[in-house]
Amino acid sequence: MIRVLFVDDHEMVRIGVTAYLSAQPDIEVVAEADDGSVAIELALEHKPDIILMDLVMKEMDGIEATRRIMEQWPEAKIIIVTSFLDDEKVYPALEAGATSYMLKTSKASEIANAVRSTYKGQSILEPEVAGKMMQKMRRKTEILPHEELTNREMEILLLMTQGKTNQEIADELFIALKTVKVHVSNILAKLQVQDRTQAVIYAFKHSLVN
């Protein structure tokens, strides 16, 4: 039997899905919760094979509940079942540790199959969610490090290529020396280089200066 904890703050949704899952010969709903904080307690108490987690709930949302469960029980397998496809919901939920992502518009049979597949170690994503993830990965690979620099950071990088010291940059831009040091540190981190010399080499290599 695949033991399931179902978390959703809508009672009718819990009743309907629980009834369907309980009718399956290989699935057992061992507990239900209507809030993220209760879900954490039940997850650690019952150690279910699968957790079906809603995202938007009154007290603690599913993203925070997922994060805390994974921190205390890294082996947990959590399937998000929600109505939301917004980027601000999808990515944080997956980053928090959710294994699969389903929509409430899915058929009950599809959710049951997702439970079985996730139990076997597979990751199930709604086609729209999978598409969003692919787009995000493509965007991430297409962005060059220097494109992450702010206008001020780019300005300071160009002054660095002229051989100016932090104090000289501060004087020219009329900003504090401490501020320049912070910007330089951010520049090195974003360009993924170790020191000013490597940052200057990067700037010339990518034709950021004549």
Automatic annotation (TrEMBL):
Record's GO cellular component terms: cytoplasm
Protein's cellular compartments: Cytoplasm
Ranges of residues in domain Response regulatory: 3-119
Residues the record lists as 4-aspartylphosphate modifications: 54
Coiled-coil segments: none
Gene3D superfamilies linked to this entry: 3.40.50.2300
Alphabetic keyword roster: DNA-binding, Phosphoprotein, Transcription, Transcription regulation
Domain (HTH luxR-type): residue spans on this chain: 142-207
Transmembrane segments: none
SMART domains: HTH_LUXR, REC
Molecular function GO terms recorded: DNA binding
Biological process according to GO: phosphorelay signal transduction system; regulation of DNA-templated transcription
Matches recorded under InterPro entries: CheY-like_superfamily (IPR011006), NreC/VraR/RcsB-like_REC (IPR058245), Sig_transdc_resp-reg_C-effctor (IPR016032), Sig_transdc_resp-reg_receiver (IPR001789), Tscrpt_reg_LuxR_C (IPR000792), WalR-like (IPR039420)
Name of protein: DNA-binding response regulator
